[in-house]
TrEMBL record:
PANTHER family: CATALASE (PTHR42821), CATALASE-B (PTHR42821:SF1). GO terms for cellular component: cytosol. This is Catalase. It catalyses: 2 H2O2 = O2 + 2 H2O. Residues 402-414 have a biased composition (Polar residues).
Length: 701
């Protein structure tokens, strides 16, 4: 017996032993058990492969076809399962949708978050809109709330959607740039389409750089309609508010995160759910009676407009909790099919021309992506409500229909299934009349006032970031005429904004512009009423041999008790030896991590540890970069020396009482349990997200 045949017999015996122990037998797609899967069927050991090798043909054919077309937009996504439950029944006055009104009803959901412009292989953190799509598996059928993390969109009519997406996608001549809006075609489009400007202001703001999907607002974007049991309608806007607050990256940080961890946002969501830190949002609604449809200085049907919360408050409805990760990314997150027209009784559309186009486009998209009309049979798309209809055949038909008829009405099958049962969907009754025309309503022609409202509502630091974003984006535009046209549009939002942007992009600054109306909406600023919590925040604790082990243990235990994720980051993997001779396990090695992957950094004492960190340029940069990005820093004992090595200009404590200086917290306490006052001060600095008042140069836009 040759060595090879002996190995083959051994491998086969291992497989047989595994099957005998309860393992699964390998089969073809037809359920036929496979004897051997490492070699093709050939005529002799070196002969040609035979066409009759049905197993290898099937195996390769499936491989050749296992990639479906990616989404044209929202290709890069992450998702999770969860539940939605209303708080009470107050909304029953306005809608028959029981999943929104019955506090005893818990509705399963799947939520998919996504970037918009990039391909599936792009990074998570470009400057971009984020999708926030929720599929409710209600007892009355599936309802899809397909939204974004901006409350407004870039265009008013779906006829312009292909133009907008073509403009923001990589340029057709060279397929550059990937997942980026900083290029000529997008800004050429913007300069010629002023309806885009309100959403562009959001895109240039910190809203386009979410720290986490779990710290991101969501909006239904459009004005929808709730319908009560009497057929009465009420206009509605949907809002999702994260329990952890709305927080963002800064631009310099976002660019570095894309290299350090391209999966930053999807990893964050996955890891949090796996750790039991379930992601939560509150659903709220803005309601407008039908008689008040024209009570605003904008058109409710205009998707480039929002209703200021000061005019119509957001009323809480219920809680969304994401508590389970998918079992298989392709089968669930990739194959899930959303559609704005998936509605249930009690929810209806308006005549928003962008929404009307989406109601066509989404279904059309699923037909090409998922191979035919039966994509609703896929488990992730399958409703929990029973399905009975006369739709037959087509690619991927899963059901074995036994009825003798596939039409309605009929007598052969007793006219089963029959329409008109109790609880059937009834469209809102609305009188419609008008000439058949192709033009925009005059009520849609205000392109600047809400962009100005957004600008006026920003804090000083948020406004600085917007100016810096415009300068970066337009600085990448090669055609100076396009730069000048964009600046010319900005002067109608705010003259000062236009002048500041012009100064940075090398075009003449305008000397005249529109009068700023001066109105603000504080809810538009992320810094108006921030949620302060350390829960799930990631803190890097730098350590090397000689670290103060007792102090490090005290700090890590306190952070974890407060719900934070504290990781010991060493110069190498494995363990570090404490100053008292004990091993301290390292969670991460410095060469594999970066400060941008954490929310805060702590430096324990221990003279040898601090000296070793100070000699390592990566460790010094780690601390300096965290300071630059406005993150909380802490040091105790000799740990403060590393802050000095990193040239951080902050007051350092000389005694055991903590000193806090623009988010830098220090104490001279060294060894043993750390003072509660120091631990509390560091936790407060982390909860603030960033030290926005840090001196000039402290926060990179």
């Amino acid at each position: 017996m040759t060595d090879e045949s002996a190995r083959d017999r051994k491998d086969l015996q291992l497989d047989q032993d595994r099957i005998a122990d309860g393992g699964e037998a390998l089969t073809t797609q037809q359920g036929v058990r496979v004897h051997h899967t490492d070699d093709s069927l050939k005529a002799g050991g070196r002969g040609p492969t035979l066409m009759e090798d049905f197993h290898v043909r099937e195996k390769i054919t499936h491989f050749d076809h296992e990639r479906i077309p990616e989404r044209v937009v929202h290709a890069r996504g992450a998702g999770a399962y969860g539940v939605f439950q209303p708080y009470d029944d107050w909304l029953a006055e306005f809608t028959t949708a029981s999943f929104l009104t019955d506090p005893a009803e818990t509705t399963p959901v799947f939520v998919r978050f996504s970037t918009v412009a990039g391909s599936r292989g792009s990074a998570d953190t470009p400057r971009d809109v984020r999708g926030f799509a929720v599929k409710f598996y209600t007892r009355a059928g599936n309802y899809d709330l397909v939204g974004n993390n901006f409350p407004v969109f870039f265009i008013q009519d779906g006829a312009k959607f292909p133009d907008f997406v073509h403009a923001v996608k990589p340029e057709p001549r060279n397929e550059i740039p990937q997942a980026a809006s900083a290029h000529d075609t997008l800004w050429d489009f913007v300069s010629l389409q002023p309806e885009t400007l309100h959403a562009i202001m959001w895109l240039m703001s910190d809203r386009a750089l979410p720290r986490s999907y779990r710290m991101m607002q969501g909006f239904g974007v459009h004005t929808f309609r709730l319908v009560d049991a009497n057929g009465r309608g009420t206009f509605v806007k949907f809002h999702w508010t994260p329990a952890l607050g709305t927080h963002s990256l800064v631009w310099d940080e976002a660019q570095k995160v894309s290299g350090a961890d391209p999966d930053f946002n999807r990893r964050d969501l996955w890891d949090a759910i796996e750790a039991g830190d379930h992601a939560e949002w509150e659903l709220g609604v803005q309601l407008v009676p039908e008689e008040d449809e024209f009570a605003f200085d904008f058109d409710l049907l205009d998707a480039t407009k929002l209703i200021p919360e000061e005019q119509v408050p957001v009323r809480p409805v219920g809680k969304l909790v994401l508590n389970r990760n998918p079992d298989n990314f392709f089968a669930e997150t990739e194959q899930i099919a959303f559609h704005t027209a998936n509605v249930v009784p009690g929810i209806d559309f308006t005549n928003d021309p962008l929404l009307q186009a989406r109601n066509f486009s989404y279904l059309d998209t699923q037909l090409i992506r998922l191979g035919g009309p039966n994509f609703a049979h896929l488990p992730v798309n399958r409703p929990v409500a029973e399905v009975h209809n006369d739709q037959r055949d087509g690619y991927g038909q899963h059901r074995v229909h036994t009825s003798g008829t596939s039409y309605n009405k009929n007598t052969i099958s007793g006219n089963d299934p029959a329409p008109g049962a109790e609880g059937s969907y009834r469209h809102y009754t609305e009188k419609v009349e008008g000439a058949k025309i192709r033009e925009r309503s005059e009520s849609f022609k205000d392109f600047y006032s809400q962009a100005t409202l957004f600008w006026n509502s920003m804090s000083e630091v948020e406004a600085e970031h917007i100016v810096a974003a415009f300068r970066f984006e337009l600085g990448k535009v090669t055609d100076k005429d396009i730069r000048a046209r964009v600046v010319d549009q900005l002067r109608w939002i705010d003259l000062g904004l236009a002048q500041r942007v012009a100064e940075g992009v090398g075009v003449p600054a305008p000397d005249q512009g529109a009068d700023n109306h001066g109105r603000t909406s504080p809810a538009l600023s992320q810094l108006t009423a921030p949620v302060r919590t350390v829960a799930t925040r990631k803190i890097a604790v730098l350590a090397a041999d000689g670290v103060d082990g007792a102090g490090l243990t005290s700090l890590v235990a306190d952070l974890r008790r407060r719900g934070a994720v504290a990781e010991v980051v060493g110069l190498v993997d494995g363990a570090v030896r404490s100053s008292s001779g004990e091993d301290v396990e390292v969670d991460r090695a410095l060469p594999t991590m970066a400060s941008v992957l954490y929310d805060a950094v702590a430096v324990p004492g221990g003279a040898d540890s601090v000296a070793a960190l100070g000699r390592d340029g990566r460790a010094v940069h780690f601390v300096a970069e965290a300071y630059k990005h406005g993150k909380a820093l802490a040091a105790f004992g000799t740990g403060a020396e590393l802050l000095e090595t990193a040239r951080i200009d902050a007051e350092v404590a000389q005694g055991t009482e903590p000193v806090e200086d623009h988010g830098v917290v220090t104490t001279a306490a060294d060894g043993g349990e750390l003072p509660d006052a120091f631990l509390d001060a560091f936790a407060d600095a982390i909860a603030a997200h960033r030290a926005w008042d840090r001196p000039t140069g402290g926060i990179a836009a």
